[in-house]
Every structure is written in C-alpha cells, then in structure tokens.
Design a protein that fits this description.
The protein contains six helices and no strands. By secondary structure, the protein is an all-alpha fold. The relative contact order is 0.14. Helix 1 packs antiparallel against helix 2, helix 2 packs antiparallel against helix 5 and helix 4 packs parallel to helix 6. The chain has a single domain, classed as Four Helix Bundle (Hemerythrin (Met), subunit A) (Up-down Bundle), CATH 1.20.120.
Length: 209
C-alpha cells in the first residue's frame, strides 16, 4: 500500500463508518454527533480524490479502495437508519433502490475495467450523490433537528432519499445501457513475453455517482 494523504483520508473514511453507526444509538445527542462524523466522511470523499489528482499521488490502492469506502458508507448508514426506524414503511423501498443500484454499478464497472473500458460519471449522477448524502445527513439528526411548522428534519431527509432513488434509477439505467455494448467482449490478452510489462488497465472514473 502506498502511504500518502489521499489514501490515509480514504482509510479514515472507512474507520468513521462504525463510529457513525454506533453514535446513532446514543441518546439524546447521538444524531448530532453521528452527523459530525458523517460530515467528516463526506468531506474526505471529495478531498482524497482531489488531492490525489492535484498532487499526482494516484495509486492502484486508492482507485481500488475509494469507491468501496463510498459504498460502505452509504450502505451502512442506510441500513442503520432502517434498523432504528428512521426509514420505515414504504420508504424502505427507496433505500433498497439505492443499495441495489450501488451493487449493479459496482459489478458493471468491475467488468468493464477488465475490458479496459472506462465509464465516465455523468453530471446527473453527481447531483444524485449530492442529494443522497445531504438527505442521509438530515435523517441522521432525525427528530432532534429543528422543525419549520409541519416540516421536520426527518421529512426533509425522506424527501431527499426519494429524490435520490428516482435519480438512481435514471443514472443506473444510463450506466447499464452504456455498458451493454461491451458485455460480449473478451478481456484483452496479455503479452506473451513474461518479462514484458502488463497491459495498463483503464482507470475507471471514481464512482461518485
């Protein structure tokens, strides 16, 4: 593993995940404390990639771990929100759509990476990720947050999750359609010379979507 600040930030995001989940169980200020750690994790999600590109410290380890850290954060927080009934009833369907899309896109990107095909992140996918992260932040605070008449913090979060779920279906379909044309392709063969350098795999775009 190449030790540099971007990789350390990515690892710290993974370490923050169980802390966010455990703080949710602490009353009465657990929601606000978990939001603080969650906000840190979201900031590192931007900083690690930005610093890696700016300082030219991109590495295979970072490209491997960064999207995994993102999906672990999303999946863990959504499952905890369902577990503590912050997301319940029909709203669980929206959370399930988001989780299923994350699995689908991860599998698709892994297959296309073997074919040296990169799938760029669309602007709509970036909007989806932003709405999704903000919505989960509202849900972490839950009823402990401020209210504006009939509008509660939880209601804002649920609305955001549904908006993210709709965008998830659209962007997931876009990624799937873009990858279907490569599904029947075989991975490129490596050079016969055992001492020849391996083929350089395409660097799939960070899955911020």
């Amino acid at each position: 593993m190449q030790t540099n600040l971007p990789n350390i930030l990515t690892l710290s995001r993974i370490v923050a995940i169980p802390i966010v989940c455990l703080l949710l169980l602490v009353e009465p200020w657990g929601g606000w404390m978990s939001l603080g750690v969650y906000t840190y994790a979201c900031i590192t999600d931007f900083l690690d990639g930005y610093l890696a590109r700016t300082w030219q410290q991109q590495s295979s380890f970072g490209r491997f771990l960064d999207p995994i850290a993102d999906k672990l954060l999303v999946a863990s927080v959504l499952l905890m929100l369902v577990g503590i009934n912050r997301v319940s009833g029909i709203n669980i369907f929206a959370a399930a759509v988001i989780l299923c899309r994350e699995i689908l896109v991860s599998g698709l990107r892994e297959h296309l990476a073997e074919l040296q095909v990169s799938v760029p992140v669309t602007r709509l996918a970036k909007w989806k990720t932003t709405i999704q992260m903000v919505a989960m932040g509202f849900l972490l605070v839950g009823d402990a947050g401020p209210t504006l008449g009939p509008v509660t913090t939880t209601a804002v979060g649920i609305t955001g999750v549904w908006a993210a779920a709709v965008l998830t279906l659209v962007t997931g379909y876009d990624y799937l359609r873009a990858g279907l044309g490569h599904m029947d392709a075989d991975p490129p063969e490596r050079p016969a010379d055992p001492y020849a350098p391996p083929l350089k795999r395409a660097d799939p775009a960070r899955d911020t979507g």
